[in-house]
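Bug #77: duplicate submission created two jobs. Keeping one. Sequence:
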Amino acid sequence: MIGTFQALFVILLAVLPGGLYTIAREHKGAAWSHENATSQLLRFVGVSAAFHVILAPLSYLAYRQLLASGALREGAAISWWWWLVLLAYLVLPYALGEVTARSRSWGPNAGRARTMTRRIVGLYTAESPEPRAWDALFSRPGLTGWVRLKLTDGSWKAGVWSGAYASGYPEEQDLYMPDQAVLDTSGKFVEDRNGDPQLTGWGILIRWSEVQYLEILHSEDEEDITQ
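Kept job's structure:
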């Protein structure tokens, strides 16, 4: 019968690679990653199984030299290079998950190395896994500028995309902007004395069901975008 320590060791070896990969890939907090428990479990186990196939030679070597030989049972001295092996067992799955997550934001001009990496990643995962265009848009890292919306009642709203928040899948789509821009009846920005869009100082929360049209106006430094 497997002892308590051995059972814990086996469980860690069985679940750790998939867990580290999943954490690294989803640590940015994408809301659509929070699926039901069954889907999460199947993906978790599937990734762990794939890592065990890749690391099978290393696992077999560890079994022969540490367990089958009785080295651990007899308390024999263990070479320090096994510490590096265990460290790689932790680092490699996490690094692969991190690369998988980051590769989605690499464009076509990202360079030869990143382009090749993204192609390899595309062999085992979707390049754009977001379930909706809404999620793909608002999950872009470093998204700045302005959001302008035409509501179903014909009115226009706009705000600065700084400190704003958009809900993600599977939650109902809504959008919060901490400060609104003043618009005229045609939807054009009203300028202040300095020629910048005039702000109201009031935040706004809008449900997607109330939106007829949405426009993203990119601006790296949130400068005047009315031109």
